[in-house]
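Components:
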Amino acid sequence: MRDALAHKGRTALAVATLVVGLVAAGALLDTWALVRRATVETYLGSHPVSATLKVEGLDAGMVDAVRGLPEVAAVRARRVAIASVDAGGGELTAQLFALADFGQRGIGEVEGVGGAWPPADGEVAIEKSSLAFSQAGVGDTLAVRAGTGPRRPLRVSGVAHDVGLAPGWMDHVVYGFVTPKTMALLGLPEAFGELQLVARDANASRDEVRAIAAKARGAIEQRGGRVSEVDVPVPGRHVHAAQMDSMLLTQGAFAAMTLLVCALLVVNMMAAILASQAREIAVMKSLGARWGQVAAMYLAFAAALGLAASALSLPVAVGIGRWYAALRGEMLNFPTAPFAIPAWTLAIQVAVGALLPVAATAALVARACRMPVAAVLRDPGIVAGDDFFVRRSAALGFLPRPLGLALGNALRKRRRMLLTIAALAAGGTVYLAAHNLRAAVLDSVDAMFAWQRYDFVARMAEAQPATALEERAASVPGVERAEAWVALRAQAAPEGSAPGYGFALLGVPPGSAVLKPAMVSGRWLDRSDARVIVVSRELARDLPGDEVELVVSGLRSTWKVAGVIDVPGQPLAYAPRASLAALRGDDRAGLVAVGLAQRAPAGELAAILQVREALEGAGMRVASTTSLREGRHAIEDHLVMVVDFLGAMAWAMIAVGGLGMASTMGLAVLERTREIGVMRALGASHLAILGLVEAEGCVIALLGWAVSLPLSLPVSGALAYAFGQVMFPVPARYLPEAAGAASWLALVLAVALVACAWPALRATRVTAARALAYA
Amino acid sequence: MIRLRAVRKDYRSPAGAFHALDDVDLEVGRGEFVAVVGRSGSGKSTLLNLLAGIDRPSAGEIVVNDAPLAGLTERALSAWRSRSVGIVFQFLQLLPTLTAAENVMLPMDFGGRWPARERERRATALLERLDVRDQAAKLPGALSGGQQQRVAVARALANEPAVVLADEPTGNLDSHNARSLLELLAQLAREGQTVVMVTHDAAAEQYATRTVRIDDGRIVA
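Structure:
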């Protein structure tokens, strides 16, 4: 303990290293525990909907029939409508929900959290996660338009919270709650179009819920209703839960790695202490101490360091954990603030803090304490040695002498150097992997949008003749191309079975000028195609084969899958517009994709307004417009956020590496006091000594950098794979991203210079007289 | 060449002040080979440290090679040392990660007196003179004690110093190597370099042109 006090800097570095590791791991544990608690008590407490059935002709009798099923705990009817709201001189997509009873408990409970709740007729309550995005406040009036209905001013009566919805700010959608009468005011049907249910068995699997939904479907269809689509989400899983879990799992793995690196650095420090106290240990043993007694002293010291680190890290970890949990809660759209971090997580952190240094150093301490007394007392101290690696470094005579000396010095304590390199390389590996993944994600997003050669899509309030729609939009100055698309819902329906789960089906001209996708497999639509579809990768996974039975607009038909493309998000398919027209006997389209001659953000809004005006001037009312750029932002917000969190872990690991290097170099300076003194006596200036220590640090940093480059490749591959499994497929990169490698090089050198600054200054304060006396 | 006037050196410790040197006056001329002798703890090494400018006196004046050391900053002392003084240390003190030749070149790197391209040639010449040229590429750990000591002397001569200070240079050598080294130091003195050597070795005194005896921090003879 006196040694710890005598070497305050070294002790402080060891504690600081442990603190960083414990904070990183502790904060993630706290986050996980807090989000889990909030999930159970908030999300699950809201009784999330088990299944949603889209029903034509839904009436109270059907709702009662489903309610009467023994497997069903609660039922409600609702209508969902896509609309648009005016905000900030532009137009935002909105999703409106009408419920019969906003106060109904036991199923997807929605709470009022500000202003009046529930909304009255002619009012809208905004979901709190989209309030800022909507740029509206309670008491404001929002201009809302839906379908063919007129633009209606709706007063924002209050703020509601639906924990089952993904955050509106993330999805770039304004969520609003209105009464059925308000739907009617907007020109929409007042009747409900969806039936939602909650399974009685809270632990029911997805398949079990599907079976319940099938039963409900039977009950509805028995009463004359027609179920066009059934949606069964993963039970008990928030819509963003997979994304969050994968992020936390990845970060947890890196936090564990940080903790491991911290432990290795503590081993480093303990090895130096034991080496410097070998004689004291031998003397204690010669005075009668058993090796176990001596070892216990050092292990108690390690535990004391760990406890000190725990005491310092715990409040920081709790603070960061709460903050991060709140952020995650914001992404999941539920609050974590009302909940406390469970006590068991705090206990685990203290226990790990105390035991980790003990476990890490136990073998080392045992070995040092079991060394024969005579062997230690014969130890002549620091000797020159004739080491293979030092000889190899001496052979590098072309290096400038200070650099050669620094390299030789770095190679003298190889285990210590390797641990320091490992610590830096671990941080660098994650940094580079995150960089690689970020670049891959952005490239993929670029590639994904590169094939969509239009600027915005106008959604028509009602379907219009496709040719007229295209001609009218194309007549606007500045518009280079316009294509009418048919947007339908389709369901895969194997022969003899009920329709399955729905996906979007877009009817486009086969020779489309605005869609030029890169194929994952197969080919794009051909002009000669009929009853052929090209599907997204996600949909391809669910389809039984190359020939599929689909139900489109209630009509069953067989389609051939010609190709697969990458489209993030929902399952999606493209078909020739003419084939759909032939199938339905209707060549009208609900969407028009518009490409501008100048693809610049500045003129986009004006062009949207002009197109809109032109279409409406021809009696074709536009329900909403969606900019491709805006869509891209929404996707990037989701994807890049995950990668940036990984980057944050890399920073924590780099900090540990920096602390490790400071510790290593501090020990090196201490051990080489005599050599430094000799150099001073030979005329070395302050600058020469300073440069020598900094150069040694830079040599280690460069080695760490070099090691991290190849290591980052498999880690990048693994991250790309994990990312692709959960979020969106990105190509693995088999070369480090150049900008990332360059910035990591600059960063690691800066870390080395900063980490070595204090040891280097200490080295310059070594006087020759003191150093030679020290010998 | 060397002049000390009323030099005192005290060390303070919790046990009180310790007078390592007390009122020391000494003059050494160019080309002298002075042996400083005395019991262990008498102040010999302290005197050598003061002459090398690696320690400062508590009082008094020291002039070495016309430079009053008291007026020099640490930085200036480093530069002065690399120009004016060569030191042969008591223990091996060769840097273990540098070859013999590199050890000899190191003071030249610090001093900057010799252009970089000439340093290797000069180091080789010095090692040749000391009969260890064939060891130039070896690390100190691969050399015998005598060879290491010769390399250490070559290093001391690297910058052609006016003064060579040697602290117990024969302490770790066998009698043959010790004699050889003392011959070499005497030769240096004959060539005009001033040599001050601290020694316990009575035989070493025979090679010196003058012996200075220190007892309890004072020059007694």
